[in-house]
Amino acid sequence: MLNQSEYLNLVVRYLNAPQDKELCSRILSFRSESAENESYFKEMERIWLFSSAADRLSLLDPKQSEKRFHLALGRPTHRTGTLKKWISGIAASFLLIGLLLVWLKYGKSVEIVTAKTNQNQTDTIFLADGSKVILAQNSELQYASKFDNGTREVRLNKGKAFFLIAKDANRPFSVDVADSRVSVLGTSFNVNLSNTTIDIDVKTGRVQFSVNQASGSAMLTAGRGLSYSRRTKQTTLRRAVNPDSWLTKHLIFVDAPLEEVCRQVGSCYGVQIRLKSGEQTSKKLNGTFEHEDLEDVLKILEQTYNLKIDRRGDEITIEP
């Protein structure tokens, strides 16, 4: 377990050398441990970008500093053991002090807000740039009270949200989701984060999805989506299907197989629908549901597919 100063040292080393694979791996692990760690990293990253002093200090060469120090003392420069470590330590200390000074100047100006919803509760969040986020039930979003560093960044810690992003070509908008990032300029899209997958569905505009800085990215246009497995690290591109149905309660099915219908209905109504393992059906569904009660939707599915449906609260089991 790292202490506070070691956290700061790790973050600073990474920000000074983001191409370092080992540091990148350690930072990803640190950020994924908790929402507090992610917030801490984002704030330090923001300070790093803010600080012109940090830019100058990051260029400090400990070897050159040591050489100049030796010349000032009138000593040979070949004694590099202990003094080299001492000079390097001074350089790192200056950098940390610079960051802390910038923190004192800017750190209190931006508040990190956490919005949470409970069961059967949604929330509409208006961001400082004019964007709107509609948070589904049992979800959590973190965002800054204002965007003042040239970027617009939020984080979806759990659950599902529909984003309506205000266009701003000079400030890209990004959503951090687990160890992945969704980047846009101005668009509307849905993000669903579960323990096993990340689902992205684009309604308008374009969205870029990337797992981390070292990996490639996928570009999605309106009507397209993807599913990313957090276990296998595999991305599956697909057609976006009813991306905002949980919000509008409007479902459209065209030649949809039972498995896809179950997934979409479950997502729309916030229930878990389990199709009994090993059971298959070739029948496809064509139809539209608009503001229908879940019970009515289940009755239609029961008649269409000749199903046996067992519902216990929010858990539904379907047997063909």
TrEMBL record:
Record flagged with keyword Transmembrane helix: yes
Domain of life, source organism: Bacteria
Gene3D superfamilies hit by this protein: 2.60.120.1440, 3.55.50.30
InterPro entries: FecR, FecR_C, Ferrdict_sens_TM
Membrane-spanning segments: 86-104
Boundaries of every Protein FecR C-terminal domain copy: 251-318
Keywords, in A-Z order: Membrane, Transmembrane, Transmembrane helix
Pfam families the UniProt entry points to: FecR, FecR_C
UniProt domain FecR protein: residue ranges: 115-208
Transmembrane helix found in the keyword field: yes
GO molecular function, one term: sigma factor antagonist activity
Name this polypeptide is given: FecR domain-containing protein
Source species: Pedobacter endophyticus
